Each structure stands twice: as structure tokens, then as C-alpha cells.
Amino acid sequence: MNSLFSGKYTWLHSINPSLKLLTILGLFILAINIHYLNFMVGFSCVILTLFIFGTGYSYKQLLLLSLPFLFVFLSTSSSMILFGKGETILFKWAYIQISEESLIRGIHLGFRALSFAILGLIFALTTKPVMLFYSLMQQLKLPPKFAYSFMAAIRLIPIMIEEYQIIINAQRVRGIEQKNHLLKKIERLAIPLLSQSIRRAYRIAVSMEAKRFQSNRKRTFYYEVGFSRNDLIFLCYFFVLIGLAYLLSNHYPFLPNTDVRYLSD
Amino acid sequence: MTSVTSVRNLRLKFPGESKMLFRDMSLSINRGEKVLLLGTSGCGKSTLLQVLSGLVPRTIDIPMKCDDIQIPDQWGFVFQDPDTQFCMPYVDEELAFVLENLEVPREEMSSKICSLLKEVGLELENIHTPIQHLSGGMKQRLAIASVLALKPDVIFLDEPTAFIDEKGTEQIWETVKRIWKDKTLIIVEHKIEKILDFADRLIVFTPDGEILADGNTSMVFTHYKEKFKEFGIWYPGAWDDYKREPIMNNKKELPNTMKLQIFKGYRNKEVKIVVDHLVVHSGEWVTIMGENGAGKSSLLLALMQLIKTSGDYFINDVPIRKTKDISGLLYLVFQNPEYQFLTNSVHDEIIYGLKNDQEIESDVKEILSSLELTSKKEQHPYQLSVGQKRRLSVATAFLQKPNILLLDEPTFGQDSLNTFKILEMIEQERQKGTIILMVTHDHHITERFATRLWEVQNGRIVTDLQLNKGGNVQRGILHEFII
Amino acid sequence: MQKGLKLTDILVTIVISIAFGILYKIWGPLYYAVKPFGLHIDQLIYGMWFMAATVAFLIIRKPGVALLAEIAASSGEFLMGSEFGLEVLLYGLIQGLFAEFILFAFRYKRFDLFIISLAALGSCAGSLIMDFYKGYIGDLSTWNLTLFIVFRIIGSILFTGLFAVSIAKALEATGVTNLVRSSSKKDHEALDQ
To answer: Which domain holds residue C30?
Structure first.
């Protein structure tokens, strides 16, 4: 969420949110169709570069935000490395079998998960939810009743988190038995939290209609979200650099360049 | 006189309820009237506002029918809860939302927003301020500003000050009186002292949704005072008329003491409350007063060890350092009773609090009847009325037999009958030797029940006053500190 | 039944889902913490990711709610900066669609454990399709893949099926669900007595 950390306002903030979202979705689809490790690494570097130099956050903040990624990388790749199919066995112990193919595939998956995570973070760090939904209404014709519902719900997030902590305390005071199993405990927390949330949401919807909100009626917009030259730069950045990464990975592969999918059956 | 809103032979019933909320009820309101609707909670006042504004049944799906209904052309609605009437995160965006609905051109919005805010006296340095940074009273004035944007002739106000402190309440009514003095106002409110001079018509409902009285203020108060007492509706002087039944309980238990020395409570590493030196003994009832955010809740949480603390803290000479140490010694009744309900029926909720299995059923019966909840024992605690919920949560606190009982505004939003009942329940515990520490905004309670007053300001207890319980002398002293 | 979802339905669905989104955000790191052990213990709790869909459907009981709930939960998680990044959005969409399809097949008329568990399996199938494509899980050794799928199915039925039904039932008992239910003809007839 934007409010967790504050960074400088950069050109990435000024990109049209709908365009940013669609571009990132496009990159996602591209990424799951990359099956060669060299290109995958190149692709990840392109995204990482934008993350480090484009988001306007200090290196310390970025480092803090990136810590979970190491974890993402390791955990995503490990099960494929340890249990994936492959012919060229490098190491074998009990059920664990590391083959060259599974090792490469595991590393490939790690990079893929990493680039997804960073793409998502780039978006989240440089996009105000309100602007996103105004843009979705204006550029992608999202019906206002969905857009304003989302904005209202996002406003409730800090209120819900605070309430969640109060409920935990309140139940502790009541002497909730520690021997209850986990699901029972979660349910006891979830009931007050959900019932309060339902009531709140309902009341907000009623008050919105009391303020003459009608989804199907024409409306004006307080924020008009358009396009600028930065949008073009944004698109070019990916086109050019990913193209470059593709060429380089084909001509100067520094890692084994085979299809990571298990093809020989 | 012309009527601006009316309904004839209204029938309305919540699905699943056995009784109709309204049965052939008729009402008509004239242009320019300032009408105050009074009645016990659950008598249907708020629902009536929703019917007259057309929110029921268009937005709120409650089965209703009537022979004839007149809904005003231009109306606005101010709701009770300041946190659930906004859909946008910032002040300007929220007002813009209303202007967007009215198709106001974008170029005109900023200046309109500024003038709306100015009219309700909400002059912010920057209109792009997060709504969460506003106090409750300011939020309600923002709600008034967004209603103002609709240019209403008739304004429905559904307990707009229920969650607001005294200062905020005054500002809200001052604003309403100023900007809408020529409009028709239909108001539901429990804290009526601030608007009695303003209302020119009072309509009183019986708990069954029938109109008991309808007329000008002085007429209604002279003729129906006894009914107000019977139904538990607050009226000016309700506290003066209240005579406490003397409760004598000679069963003295072991005396309790609590000692604090340079005791601090922290939230997010910030010191929120500091207590230099305090000793409290059995038989004391301390009310803790102060503005919102002064540190009252932090004090309760610190005593419960629910936030980080430092310093010396002893109960009956046993040092308290972690959560475990207080188990059984202290209990905190939270403001929202629902947070502390753990079971699916009133009966189970009481059982949950009882420690040993002996004679449980007879105990439960006794407790149920003292709470007047015998007929509701199979009901889900959430389905009880506001007052019943609160009584149940206070009663379950007693069942834990704590040496020290902490309460966070236990009478907040309660009708007069419930308020007196809860206070009497607490008084009984006090006489048994339980130390009572209670956060409240109500000086009547401090004057009539407390033996001691702490006033909290900026995270410190700035006043520690021994009170002469039940004496009238203290009232003058109190005013200096509280108001 | 009224055409489409009303504003109240939409807002309630989204807020419930965001509440789950908060839970997901709290649980996400936990998920990764159990993951590296490779034996797919994590798959046993995977079902919680689809819970928003069934819980919201059981509360509102209208077409489209399950899909909307999954999308809302995943966008909430996405906007809060999930470790999973963008994929949550697509997973949410696919999982929601599959659950919605099952509910549609029964004309949105049944709310029992069996149907809800079927919807859970629908979401589960949707997520597996995504995993085959994105995570190459087909290239895991056979025993490992079987373990993976079986654990995920168990987890789905446990959370999205059983646990969701239990939460919905508890909420029903509190009476709060009455707010969002349409009034019946019978309720209107009761006014004439």
C-alpha cells in the first residue's frame, strides 16, 4: 500500500494507471511464455532495473521491500530443484533427486516468480488506488458502482486492521481458551470482524445512495486521467530493453540455453 | 401550512420478526418544522426516517406498505456513524463524489468544495486531507457539508452526535442551526439537551411503534414525564429524578490494592500514558475522564498488559510484569460488547464465564433473571438489543470475579433505565470489594457514583480528586475540571 | 430475483473479500515459510485463498458474487503489495470463474456443503491449470506431483468447503446476514394480517 512507505513522485507515478496495468499484464503473459533461462534472467534484469531506479524509493526502503523476494525465489525454485523430473542426475538421496534439467528449471522458476513479484510491487508502489479506479472508469469503462465500492473498501482497510487488533485483545481478556484448535480460534476472530465489516459496508452503500449515487447515470469526474509522453516512454522502455535482452540471450548465452520444459518423454 | 413529507397507514415488518414495527401509523410534517423524534432504542425512529426519505424500500429492502406516502423532492440524510458515511479517502474527494453525482462540471468543483467546507466551519489548511485524520465531530461536519451540496429542503438527521464528544456535539448543532434554520429538519437524537431550544415539535413513540405524544416541547415534557421514566427515554432532569436504591452488601471480601510507580504505557514505542504514583484500594470507584486521544484507553490497556509497559505495578503486593500475571486479577469490559462474545447463545455465554461446574444451572438461572434475559437465553448474543448486549457483557465480567474491574464507557449510548441498571450492578461489585476503574464522558456518573476522579490530559493524570460520594457539594468543583 | 447486483451487494462482497485479503496478507509469508520443505505441506492451507468466494456467496447468495469476491480479494492483496505480485490477479480471476461456473450449474439455488465443496474443487482445478502452465508442475516427479495435487484438494475442501460453510453458518446465527438478503413474498404478505 502506498501509505506504508512514502517515496518521491517519479515519472512512473504519472503513467496512466490503466495502461500501466495492461502493460504489466502483458509482461506477465510474456513471462509465462519464456522457456529459456538466459532470456528469463535478462527479462528479470530489465524489471529489476526499473524497480531500483524508477520507483523513487530510497535504497534502504527498496532493500527492505525486497527481502521477502529472496524467500520467494528460494521457496519457488526449491521443490522443482529437489523433486523435478530430469535425466542427467547430479545428486540423489532418498526421494530427493537433483538433475541438471530440474536444477535449471528450478532456477528459471525462481526468476519468474521474482519478476512477477517485482512487477506487482512496481505497480503497487507507484499507483494511487483512487487514480487507478478513476482511470478504469474513464479508459476501460468500469461501471462506477464497482469502482466506488472498491475505493470505499480500500478506505476501510486501516479501520479493519485496527479492529482486528482490538478483537484479539478483547478475546484475550475474556479468557479465550488456548487449547482451542487453530481453526476455531480463527473463526472466533473472523465472526466479529466479518459481521462488523458487513454492517459497515452496508451502511456506506446506503449513505452513497442517499447522496444520489446512481451507477447507470452520467457523471462528471473530479480527476480526469489521460495520457502523456511518459506513457510512450514507459512502453518503449520495455519494448527496447526486452528486445535487447532477447537478442543478447540468443547470441551470447552465458547459461545453458535449452528449453526448460521436460520434453523428452 | 403545507406538508413536505407524510405517510398514511404505514405498515412495516422486519423479515423474521414476529411483530410489526409499525402498524397503521400516520404522520405528517410541515414545511419549516424542526421535529424531534423520541423513543426507546428499537422503536423504529431511524427506520421511519429511512421510510420518509424513500431509502426504504428503494435501497434498504424491508417489507412495507402504506396507503399514501409523500417523499420530499430535495432531501439529505446525515447518519450516525462517522466512519460509515464516506466512500473516499480524502475530504475533497468525498465532496467531489457528491458533486460528480450531481454532474457538476469538473472546473467548478474545487471552488464549490471550498465554499461547502467554509459553510460548515471546517476550514482546513489543505482540502486534500485524509478523512481519517479528522476528529469524529469534524467528520460529522464533513457529512453535513456533503448533504449541503445536495441543496436539500428537508434534512433527516439520525443521531448525528451519538459517537461524538461534548465539544464536537456542540459544534455540530451550532452548524446545523446556522445553515438550516429555514429548512425542515427531522431529527432522531438521545442527547437532547443541546437541541431542545431549537426543536419546535416533539413526537414520542411507544416501544411498540405507536405515537404516544405529538406537540410542542413544554407540553410534551409536562404531560408525559412519567412515561419517559417508564420507557427509559432521556429527558432534561432525568438524573435529578433518579433515586438510587440503597444496595447493602455486608459480605466484605479481602481488601484489594493496586499500586503504580513511574508506570508507563507504550504504543509503537511512543509513550502514551505516564502515571507517577498512585494507590487504589477496595471500595474505590474511580472515573477516568478526559478528551478523546488523551490517553484514557492507553491507561486501561497498559493496566491490562495489552500494550508494552515499564515501571512498578503491584496488585495486592504482587508485582505485575507480563500478561500472565494478571490472569484472574483484572478484567476489562471493552466498549463494543460484540468483541467479547465467544459463543452462540446467551446461556452459553454465561456458562463460559463460570469456572466450576457445581450448581451451574441454578446460577445461570439467577443471573439470567437478574439481567432480565430469561426469555432470551437461547438467542444469539448479537441478536440482543443494544442495552441487553451491554448488560450481558458487564455480567460476564463479574463472573470472572476480578479483583479490579476496568470498564470503557459502559453506559455509552444506553437509555436511562439501562444506564441506571448497569451502574447499580457495578456499585454492587464495588461494595463487595472490587476496585472499579471506569472511563466515561458522563459527569453525572462521576457526581453520583464515583469516589474518585482522574482527569487525563496529554498522556498524564493531571487531576486526582477524592470525591464525597453522592454529595452535591462536589458539583461545582467538578465543573472546573471537566467543562 | 432482481437483475444484476445492487450497490449494497457489491460493496458488502468487496469489503468481505478485502477482509480476507488482509488475512491473506498476514498468511502469505506463513505460506512461503512452510513451502521450502518441498513436501508440499503448504498445499494443505492453499484452500484458504479461495475462501472469499464461497463465504461471500453464502452470505449474499446471488449470481456473480463468487467471481467478484475472488477478484476483489486478489486485487486487495495485489494493491497491498503482495509477495506473489501480479499473478494473484490472474489466479483470482480463474479461481473465481471456476467456482462461479459450478454455482451457476446448480442455478444458484443450493447452499449446502456438497455444492460449496464442489465450488471449492472448481477453484482448485482452476488454480492447478494455472500452475501447470506457469509453474511447470507437470514436470515434477510423479509421486511428488500426486502429493501436491492431493494435498491441494484436501486443503480446498477443508477451507473453501467446510470452513467457509462453518463461518457462514456462524454469521447467519448473528443475524447480520439478514441485512443483505432480499425480502420474500411471504414477508410482504405478512403485512396484510
So the answer is: 7-178
Per-residue pLDDT tens over the stretch A26-77:
999 899 899 999 999 999 999 999 998 888 888 888 888 888 778 778 877 8
The dihedral through the CA atoms of B363, B366, B370, B376 has a sign that is: positive
CA–CA separation, B67 and B115 (whole Å)? 42
Bridge partner list, C180 = none
C176 near B CB under 8 A:
yes
Q: Which of C10, C11, C16 would you mutate first to test chain A, the one with the most A CBs within 10 A?
A: C11
Residues facing residue B332 across a β-bridge: B406
Could you tell me if residue A44 is inside a domain? yes
- Using CB atoms, which residue from B83, B103, B104 is nearest to A159? B83
CA distance C97 to C151: 22
Together in a domain, A153 and A110: no
Return the C-alpha torsion angle B464, B466, B471, B477, nearest 10.
Answer: -40
- Residue recorded with cell 507480563: B322
Contacts of A198 in chain C (CB under 8 A): 12, 15-16, 59, 171, 176-177, 179-180
Question: Is the full-model pTM beyond 0.90?
Answer: yes
Task: Supply the range of the domain harboring residue A156.
Answer: 144-210
Residue A65 in domain: yes
**Per-residue model confidence (pLDDT) at position C1:** 41
Sequence length of chain C is 193
Structure ipTM: 0.91
In a domain, A166, yes or no: yes
DSSP C158: I
Q: Tell me how far apart the alpha carbons of residues C7 and A148 are, in angstroms, rounded to a whole number.
A: 9
* Grid cell locating B363: 446460577
- The answer to whether B188 and B46 have CB atoms below 8 angstroms apart is yes
Q: Ramachandran region of residue B89, left (φ > 0), alpha (ψ -120 to 50) or beta?
A: alpha
Q: Is residue A11 part of a domain?
A: no
> Are A149 and C143 a contacting pair at CB < 8 A?
no
For cell 467531489, the residue is B96
What's the CA gap between B436 and B427, in Å, rounded? 9
Of C8, C175, C188, the CB nearest to B63: C188
Asked if the structure places residue C187 within a domain, the reply is no
A149 and A49 share a domain? no
| CATH number of the CATH domain containing C34 | 1.10.1760
